[in-house]
Protein backbone atom coordinates (compact mmCIF):
# COMPACT_ATOMS: atom_id res chain seq x y z
CA UNK A 1 0.00 0.00 0.00
CA UNK A 2 1.93 3.06 -1.23
CA UNK A 3 1.37 6.66 -2.29
CA UNK A 4 3.46 9.08 -4.30
CA UNK A 5 5.30 10.23 -1.19
CA UNK A 6 7.09 6.88 -1.03
CA UNK A 7 5.24 5.86 2.11
CA UNK A 8 4.87 2.14 2.60
CA UNK A 9 3.34 0.85 5.80
CA UNK A 10 4.80 -2.55 4.94
CA UNK A 11 8.36 -1.27 5.47
CA UNK A 12 9.37 -3.06 8.67
CA UNK A 13 12.98 -1.89 8.56
CA UNK A 14 11.84 1.68 9.25
CA UNK A 15 9.07 0.54 11.58
CA UNK A 16 11.25 -1.40 14.00
CA UNK A 17 14.66 0.25 13.61
CA UNK A 18 14.43 1.39 17.25
CA UNK A 19 13.86 -2.13 18.62
CA UNK A 20 16.45 -4.80 19.34
CA UNK A 21 15.93 -8.42 18.34
CA UNK A 22 15.18 -9.25 21.97
CA UNK A 23 12.53 -6.53 22.20
CA UNK A 24 10.92 -7.71 18.98
CA UNK A 25 10.77 -11.30 20.23
CA UNK A 26 9.12 -10.12 23.46
CA UNK A 27 6.56 -8.17 21.43
CA UNK A 28 5.94 -11.24 19.28
CA UNK A 29 5.19 -13.31 22.37
CA UNK A 30 2.89 -10.65 23.83
CA UNK A 31 0.83 -10.16 20.65
CA UNK A 32 0.61 -13.94 20.21
CA UNK A 33 -0.92 -14.11 23.69
CA UNK A 34 -3.29 -11.24 22.91
CA UNK A 35 -4.51 -13.24 19.94
CA UNK A 36 -6.19 -15.64 22.38
CA UNK A 37 -9.55 -14.02 23.32
CA UNK A 38 -10.20 -16.39 26.23
CA UNK A 39 -6.81 -15.55 27.76
CA UNK A 40 -7.40 -11.80 27.40
CA UNK A 41 -10.87 -12.05 28.94
CA UNK A 42 -9.53 -14.02 31.88
CA UNK A 43 -6.53 -11.72 32.32
CA UNK A 44 -8.49 -8.46 32.18
CA UNK A 45 -10.89 -9.76 34.85
CA UNK A 46 -8.28 -11.20 37.19
CA UNK A 47 -5.38 -8.72 36.93
CA UNK A 48 -7.00 -5.75 38.79
CA UNK A 49 -8.12 -8.14 41.55
CA UNK A 50 -4.70 -9.82 41.83
CA UNK A 51 -2.98 -6.40 42.01
CA UNK A 52 -5.15 -5.52 45.03
CA UNK A 53 -4.27 -8.76 46.84
CA UNK A 54 -0.59 -7.86 46.92
CA UNK A 55 0.50 -11.07 45.16
CA UNK A 56 3.91 -10.71 43.47
CA UNK A 57 2.74 -10.07 39.89
CA UNK A 58 4.10 -6.51 39.67
CA UNK A 59 7.33 -7.70 38.04
CA UNK A 60 5.57 -9.91 35.49
CA UNK A 61 3.26 -7.10 34.41
CA UNK A 62 6.16 -4.63 34.27
CA UNK A 63 8.27 -6.88 32.02
CA UNK A 64 5.42 -7.69 29.60
CA UNK A 65 2.33 -5.61 28.86
CA UNK A 66 3.55 -2.55 30.85
CA UNK A 67 6.88 -2.43 29.00
CA UNK A 68 5.13 -2.76 25.62
CA UNK A 69 2.53 -0.01 26.07
CA UNK A 70 3.78 2.34 28.84
CA UNK A 71 6.75 4.72 28.97
CA UNK A 72 7.59 4.05 32.62
CA UNK A 73 6.40 4.65 36.17
CA UNK A 74 8.00 8.10 36.45
CA UNK A 75 8.79 11.04 34.17
CA UNK A 76 12.46 10.15 34.47
CA UNK A 77 11.87 6.62 33.15
CA UNK A 78 9.63 7.95 30.40
CA UNK A 79 12.29 10.46 29.33
CA UNK A 80 14.51 7.55 28.22
CA UNK A 81 11.78 6.27 25.88
CA UNK A 82 11.03 9.79 24.63
CA UNK A 83 14.68 10.43 23.83
CA UNK A 84 14.90 7.14 21.94
CA UNK A 85 11.82 7.94 19.84
CA UNK A 86 13.15 11.43 19.16
CA UNK A 87 16.23 9.98 17.46
CA UNK A 88 13.90 8.65 14.76
CA UNK A 89 11.92 11.86 14.30
CA UNK A 90 8.99 10.65 16.41
CA UNK A 91 7.50 13.01 18.98
CA UNK A 92 5.63 12.21 22.20
CA UNK A 93 2.18 12.88 23.64
CA UNK A 94 2.64 12.46 27.39
CA UNK A 95 -0.23 10.91 29.31
CA UNK A 96 -0.14 10.82 33.10
CA UNK A 97 -2.08 7.58 33.54
CA UNK A 98 -4.58 8.55 36.21
CA UNK A 99 -8.34 8.04 35.86
CA UNK A 100 -11.36 7.10 37.91
CA UNK A 101 -9.91 8.40 41.18
CA UNK A 102 -12.14 9.66 43.97
CA UNK A 103 -11.91 12.54 46.42
CA UNK A 104 -11.07 16.22 46.12
CA UNK A 105 -7.55 15.61 47.42
CA UNK A 106 -6.86 13.08 44.64
CA UNK A 107 -8.25 15.46 42.02
CA UNK A 108 -6.11 18.34 43.26
CA UNK A 109 -3.05 16.08 43.29
CA UNK A 110 -3.75 14.96 39.71
CA UNK A 111 -4.05 18.60 38.64
CA UNK A 112 -0.64 19.33 40.15
CA UNK A 113 0.78 16.31 38.32
CA UNK A 114 -0.67 17.45 34.98
CA UNK A 115 0.91 20.88 35.49
CA UNK A 116 4.21 19.22 36.40
CA UNK A 117 4.02 17.19 33.16
CA UNK A 118 3.37 20.37 31.13
CA UNK A 119 6.36 22.10 32.71
CA UNK A 120 8.51 19.07 31.96
CA UNK A 121 7.25 18.86 28.35
CA UNK A 122 8.21 22.52 27.86
CA UNK A 123 11.86 21.64 28.60
CA UNK A 124 11.91 18.98 25.86
CA UNK A 125 12.10 19.46 22.10
CA UNK A 126 9.90 16.52 21.07
CA UNK A 127 6.88 16.71 23.44
CA UNK A 128 4.32 19.05 21.81
CA UNK A 129 1.25 17.71 23.67
CA UNK A 130 -0.01 16.20 26.89
CA UNK A 131 -3.20 14.23 27.36
CA UNK A 132 -5.77 14.87 30.12
CA UNK A 133 -8.59 12.62 31.24
CA UNK A 134 -11.35 14.59 32.98
CA UNK A 135 -12.15 11.63 35.25
CA UNK A 136 -8.67 12.23 36.69
CA UNK A 137 -9.82 15.61 38.06
CA UNK A 138 -13.61 15.17 38.43
CA UNK A 139 -15.96 12.69 40.09
CA UNK A 140 -17.62 10.29 37.63
CA UNK A 141 -20.98 10.65 39.39
CA UNK A 142 -20.85 14.44 39.07
CA UNK A 143 -20.20 14.19 35.34
CA UNK A 144 -23.12 11.79 35.00
CA UNK A 145 -25.42 14.20 36.88
CA UNK A 146 -24.31 17.01 34.59
CA UNK A 147 -24.81 14.85 31.53
CA UNK A 148 -28.40 14.13 32.50
CA UNK A 149 -29.24 17.85 32.84
CA UNK A 150 -27.58 19.35 29.76
CA UNK A 151 -30.13 22.13 29.20
CA UNK A 152 -29.45 23.89 32.48
CA UNK A 153 -26.70 26.50 32.37
CA UNK A 154 -25.17 25.16 35.59
CA UNK A 155 -25.62 21.60 34.38
CA UNK A 156 -27.36 20.57 37.58
CA UNK A 157 -30.50 21.42 39.53
CA UNK A 158 -30.45 23.30 42.83
CA UNK A 159 -27.71 21.29 44.51
CA UNK A 160 -25.41 23.99 45.82
CA UNK A 161 -22.76 21.48 46.81
CA UNK A 162 -22.55 20.12 43.27
CA UNK A 163 -22.41 23.62 41.79
CA UNK A 164 -19.37 24.29 43.98
CA UNK A 165 -17.89 20.92 43.04
CA UNK A 166 -18.24 21.66 39.32
CA UNK A 167 -16.67 25.09 39.82
CA UNK A 168 -13.64 23.37 41.35
CA UNK A 169 -13.39 21.08 38.30
CA UNK A 170 -13.46 24.13 36.03
CA UNK A 171 -10.77 25.81 38.12
CA UNK A 172 -8.55 22.72 37.84
CA UNK A 173 -9.01 22.60 34.07
CA UNK A 174 -8.34 26.34 33.78
CA UNK A 175 -5.10 25.99 35.75
CA UNK A 176 -3.93 23.17 33.48
CA UNK A 177 -4.80 25.01 30.26
CA UNK A 178 -3.36 28.32 31.49
CA UNK A 179 0.01 26.68 32.18
CA UNK A 180 -0.12 24.92 28.82
CA UNK A 181 -0.84 28.18 26.99
CA UNK A 182 2.08 29.88 28.76
CA UNK A 183 4.42 27.01 27.85
CA UNK A 184 2.99 26.46 24.33
CA UNK A 185 2.08 22.82 25.00
CA UNK A 186 -1.11 21.39 23.51
CA UNK A 187 -3.69 19.80 25.85
CA UNK A 188 -5.64 16.86 24.42
CA UNK A 189 -8.84 16.21 26.39
CA UNK A 190 -9.70 12.51 26.18
CA UNK A 191 -13.18 11.35 25.21
CA UNK A 192 -14.93 9.12 27.74
CA UNK A 193 -18.21 7.20 28.05
CA UNK A 194 -21.20 8.75 26.26
CA UNK A 195 -23.13 9.12 29.52
CA UNK A 196 -20.55 11.56 30.90
CA UNK A 197 -19.32 13.11 27.64
CA UNK A 198 -21.64 16.14 27.40
CA UNK A 199 -20.10 18.11 30.32
CA UNK A 200 -16.62 17.17 29.06
CA UNK A 201 -17.48 18.61 25.64
CA UNK A 202 -18.89 21.79 27.15
CA UNK A 203 -15.92 22.31 29.46
CA UNK A 204 -13.50 21.73 26.57
CA UNK A 205 -15.31 24.23 24.32
CA UNK A 206 -15.22 26.73 27.20
CA UNK A 207 -11.44 26.29 27.52
CA UNK A 208 -11.01 26.66 23.74
CA UNK A 209 -12.89 29.97 23.82
CA UNK A 210 -10.37 31.24 26.35
CA UNK A 211 -7.09 29.71 25.16
CA UNK A 212 -7.49 29.05 21.40
CA UNK A 213 -7.77 32.67 20.25
CA UNK A 214 -4.45 32.89 18.39
CA UNK A 215 -3.27 29.27 18.26
CA UNK A 216 -4.60 25.82 19.07
CA UNK A 217 -3.79 24.85 22.66
CA UNK A 218 -6.89 22.84 23.70
CA UNK A 219 -8.15 19.87 21.67
CA UNK A 220 -11.35 17.88 22.12
CA UNK A 221 -11.42 14.18 21.26
CA UNK A 222 -14.13 13.07 18.85
CA UNK A 223 -14.99 9.36 18.74
CA UNK A 224 -16.32 8.58 15.27
CA UNK A 225 -17.68 5.18 16.26
CA UNK A 226 -20.53 7.26 17.69
CA UNK A 227 -23.07 8.00 14.97
CA UNK A 228 -23.61 11.62 16.12
CA UNK A 229 -19.99 12.77 16.22
CA UNK A 230 -19.50 13.84 12.60
CA UNK A 231 -22.37 16.27 13.12
CA UNK A 232 -20.81 17.32 16.43
CA UNK A 233 -17.49 18.10 14.69
CA UNK A 234 -19.25 20.40 12.21
CA UNK A 235 -21.29 21.99 15.02
CA UNK A 236 -18.11 22.61 17.04
CA UNK A 237 -16.55 24.28 14.00
CA UNK A 238 -19.58 26.57 13.62
CA UNK A 239 -19.35 27.52 17.31
CA UNK A 240 -15.62 28.23 16.91
CA UNK A 241 -16.31 30.53 13.98
CA UNK A 242 -19.09 32.35 15.83
CA UNK A 243 -17.02 32.79 18.99
CA UNK A 244 -13.81 33.60 17.08
CA UNK A 245 -11.54 30.86 18.35
CA UNK A 246 -9.64 28.04 16.65
CA UNK A 247 -11.03 24.55 16.95
CA UNK A 248 -8.76 21.74 18.11
CA UNK A 249 -9.84 18.14 17.51
CA UNK A 250 -8.30 14.74 18.00
CA UNK A 251 -10.05 12.26 15.71
CA UNK A 252 -10.30 8.68 16.97
CA UNK A 253 -12.55 5.78 16.18
CA UNK A 254 -13.28 4.98 19.83
CA UNK A 255 -12.51 2.79 22.83
CA UNK A 256 -15.69 1.88 24.72
CA UNK A 257 -17.80 0.09 22.10
CA UNK A 258 -18.74 -3.06 24.01
CA UNK A 259 -19.45 -1.15 27.23
CA UNK A 260 -21.59 1.38 25.35
CA UNK A 261 -23.71 -1.26 23.62
CA UNK A 262 -24.18 -3.26 26.82
CA UNK A 263 -25.35 -0.21 28.79
CA UNK A 264 -27.73 0.89 26.01
CA UNK A 265 -29.28 -2.59 25.93
CA UNK A 266 -29.54 -2.78 29.72
CA UNK A 267 -31.17 0.66 30.07
CA UNK A 268 -33.23 0.28 26.88
CA UNK A 269 -32.11 3.38 25.00
CA UNK A 270 -30.81 3.56 21.40
CA UNK A 271 -27.14 2.65 21.18
CA UNK A 272 -24.91 5.65 20.39
CA UNK A 273 -22.58 3.34 18.46
CA UNK A 274 -22.48 3.06 14.68
CA UNK A 275 -24.30 0.04 13.20
CA UNK A 276 -21.09 -1.41 11.73
CA UNK A 277 -17.40 -0.76 11.12
CA UNK A 278 -18.04 0.49 7.57
CA UNK A 279 -20.15 3.34 8.99
CA UNK A 280 -17.40 4.20 11.48
CA UNK A 281 -14.76 4.20 8.74
CA UNK A 282 -16.96 6.36 6.51
CA UNK A 283 -17.56 8.98 9.23
CA UNK A 284 -13.91 8.94 10.31
CA UNK A 285 -12.64 9.60 6.80
CA UNK A 286 -15.30 12.25 6.19
CA UNK A 287 -14.32 13.97 9.47
CA UNK A 288 -10.69 13.83 8.40
CA UNK A 289 -11.47 15.37 5.03
CA UNK A 290 -13.62 18.08 6.67
CA UNK A 291 -10.82 19.02 9.08
CA UNK A 292 -8.17 19.17 6.34
CA UNK A 293 -10.54 21.19 4.14
CA UNK A 294 -10.60 23.77 6.97
CA UNK A 295 -7.01 23.35 8.12
CA UNK A 296 -6.46 27.10 8.57
CA UNK A 297 -9.24 27.13 11.19
CA UNK A 298 -8.95 23.64 12.69
CA UNK A 299 -6.01 21.96 14.37
CA UNK A 300 -6.36 18.19 13.93
CA UNK A 301 -4.66 15.18 15.48
CA UNK A 302 -5.05 12.12 13.26
CA UNK A 303 -5.09 9.56 16.06
CA UNK A 304 -5.63 6.35 14.14
CA UNK A 305 -4.22 2.87 13.69
CA UNK A 306 -6.07 2.48 10.41
CA UNK A 307 -3.54 2.45 7.58
CA UNK A 308 -6.03 3.62 4.96
CA UNK A 309 -7.08 6.67 6.99
CA UNK A 310 -3.47 7.70 7.58
CA UNK A 311 -2.64 7.34 3.90
CA UNK A 312 -5.74 9.30 2.99
CA UNK A 313 -4.71 12.16 5.30
CA UNK A 314 -1.19 12.18 3.82
CA UNK A 315 -2.60 12.24 0.28
CA UNK A 316 -5.04 15.06 1.11
CA UNK A 317 -2.18 17.18 2.45
CA UNK A 318 -0.25 16.61 -0.77
CA UNK A 319 -3.26 17.31 -3.00
CA UNK A 320 -3.98 20.60 -1.22
CA UNK A 321 -0.34 21.68 -1.25
CA UNK A 322 0.13 21.62 2.53
CA UNK A 323 3.56 20.81 3.91
CA UNK A 324 4.00 17.47 5.66
CA UNK A 325 4.74 19.26 8.92
CA UNK A 326 1.95 21.86 8.70
CA UNK A 327 1.44 23.18 12.27
CA UNK A 328 -2.30 22.34 12.24
CA UNK A 329 -1.98 18.61 11.55
CA UNK A 330 -0.31 15.90 13.57
CA UNK A 331 -0.45 12.11 13.34
CA UNK A 332 -0.34 9.86 16.39
CA UNK A 333 -0.47 6.20 17.37
CA UNK A 334 -0.32 4.47 20.73
CA UNK A 335 3.09 3.51 22.03
CA UNK A 336 3.59 -0.21 21.45
CA UNK A 337 1.27 -0.41 18.45
CA UNK A 338 1.35 0.43 14.72
CA UNK A 339 5.03 1.26 14.53
CA UNK A 340 4.74 0.61 10.79
CA UNK A 341 2.54 3.72 10.53
CA UNK A 342 4.38 5.99 12.98
CA UNK A 343 7.97 5.48 11.85
CA UNK A 344 7.23 5.42 8.13
CA UNK A 345 5.30 8.70 8.41
CA UNK A 346 8.20 10.19 10.38
CA UNK A 347 10.62 9.06 7.68
CA UNK A 348 8.63 11.13 5.16
CA UNK A 349 8.76 14.24 7.31
CA UNK A 350 5.24 14.19 8.75
CA UNK A 351 4.65 15.45 12.29
CA UNK A 352 3.91 12.23 14.15
CA UNK A 353 4.04 11.07 17.74
CA UNK A 354 3.55 8.18 20.06
CA UNK A 355 0.88 8.51 22.74
CA UNK A 356 3.00 7.63 25.75
CA UNK A 357 1.32 6.90 29.10
CA UNK A 358 3.29 6.81 32.31
CA UNK A 359 2.54 6.32 35.98
CA UNK A 360 2.61 3.70 38.75
CA UNK A 361 1.58 0.28 37.48
CA UNK A 362 -1.50 0.23 39.74
CA UNK A 363 -2.70 3.53 38.24
CA UNK A 364 -2.26 2.47 34.61
CA UNK A 365 -3.90 -0.95 34.96
CA UNK A 366 -7.24 0.36 33.51
CA UNK A 367 -5.34 1.66 30.47
CA UNK A 368 -3.46 -1.62 30.02
CA UNK A 369 -6.68 -3.64 30.26
CA UNK A 370 -8.20 -1.50 27.48
CA UNK A 371 -5.15 -2.09 25.29
CA UNK A 372 -5.44 -5.85 25.79
CA UNK A 373 -9.16 -5.82 25.01
CA UNK A 374 -8.69 -3.53 22.02
CA UNK A 375 -6.05 -5.76 20.48
CA UNK A 376 -8.20 -8.85 20.91
CA UNK A 377 -11.46 -7.26 19.70
CA UNK A 378 -10.32 -5.08 16.79
CA UNK A 379 -10.54 -7.28 13.73
CA UNK A 380 -7.08 -8.06 12.37
CA UNK A 381 -5.12 -5.69 14.65
CA UNK A 382 -3.20 -8.36 16.57
CA UNK A 383 -2.65 -10.39 13.41
CA UNK A 384 -1.27 -7.37 11.58
CA UNK A 385 1.10 -6.51 14.43
CA UNK A 386 2.30 -10.11 14.59
CA UNK A 387 2.85 -10.48 10.85
CA UNK A 388 4.94 -7.29 10.72
CA UNK A 389 7.06 -8.36 13.69
CA UNK A 390 7.63 -11.79 12.16
CA UNK A 391 8.52 -10.20 8.82
CA UNK A 392 11.13 -7.97 10.46
CA UNK A 393 12.65 -10.81 12.50
CA UNK A 394 12.93 -12.82 9.29
CA UNK A 395 14.53 -9.87 7.47
CA UNK A 396 17.13 -9.50 10.20
CA UNK A 397 18.29 -13.07 9.73
CA UNK A 398 19.84 -11.81 6.50
CA UNK A 399 23.41 -10.62 7.32
CA UNK A 400 23.11 -7.69 4.90
CA UNK A 401 19.89 -6.60 6.57
CA UNK A 402 21.61 -6.79 9.96
CA UNK A 403 24.36 -4.49 8.72
CA UNK A 404 21.80 -1.95 7.54
CA UNK A 405 19.93 -2.18 10.86
CA UNK A 406 23.06 -1.44 12.85
CA UNK A 407 23.44 1.99 11.24
CA UNK A 408 22.45 4.99 13.35
CA UNK A 409 19.24 6.84 12.45
CA UNK A 410 19.61 9.90 10.27
Beginning-to-end CA distance, first to last residue? 24 Å
The biggest sheet, with number of strands, parallel, antiparallel or mixed sense and barrel status, is: 8 strands, parallel, barrel
The name of the CATH architecture is Alpha-Beta Barrel
> Could you name the ranges where pLDDT drops below 50 across 5 or more consecutive residues?
152-156
Query: How many structural domains?
Result: 1
Which percent band covers the strand fraction?
Answer: 5-15%
By CATH reckoning, the class would read Alpha Beta
How many runs of DSSP E, i.e. beta strands?
8
CATH topology name, in short, is TIM Barrel
Alpha-carbon Rg, integer = 21 Å
| Subunit arrangement of the protein | single chain
**Quick one: overall form?**
globular
The structural class is alpha/beta
Number of helices: 17
**Percentage of helical residues?**
55-70%
Order of helices and strands: HHHHHEHEHHEHEHEHHEHEHEHHH
Order of strands side by side in the largest beta sheet? 1-2-3-4-5-6-7-8
Query: What does the average pLDDT come to?
Result: 88
List the helices and strands and how they pair.
Elements: H1 12-15, H2 21-34, H3 37-53, H4 58-69, H5 75-86, E1 91-96, H6 104-121, E2 129-132, H7 140-147, H8 160-183, E3 186-189, H9 194-211, E4 218-223, H10 229-243, E5 247-252, H11 257-267, H12 277-293, E6 298-303, H13 307-319, E7 329-334, H14 339-347, E8 352-358, H15 361-377, H16 381-396, H17 399-405
Parallel strand pairs: 1-2, 1-8, 2-3, 3-4, 4-5, 5-6, 6-7, 7-8
Textual characterization of the structure:
There is one protein chain. The chain is α/β, with parallel strands linked by helices and 410 residues long. It is built from 17 helices and 8 strands. The chain has helices at residues 12-15, 21-34, 37-53, 58-69, 75-86, 104-121, 140-147, 160-183, 194-211, 229-243, 257-267, 277-293, 307-319, 339-347, 361-377, 381-396, 399-405, and strands at residues 91-96, 129-132, 186-189, 218-223, 247-252, 298-303, 329-334, 352-358. Strands 1-2-3-4-5-6-7-8 form an 8-stranded parallel β-barrel, surrounded by 7 helices. Helix 3 packs antiparallel against helix 15 (361-377), helix 4 (58-69) packs across helix 15 (361-377) and helix 12 runs parallel beside helix 13 (307-319).
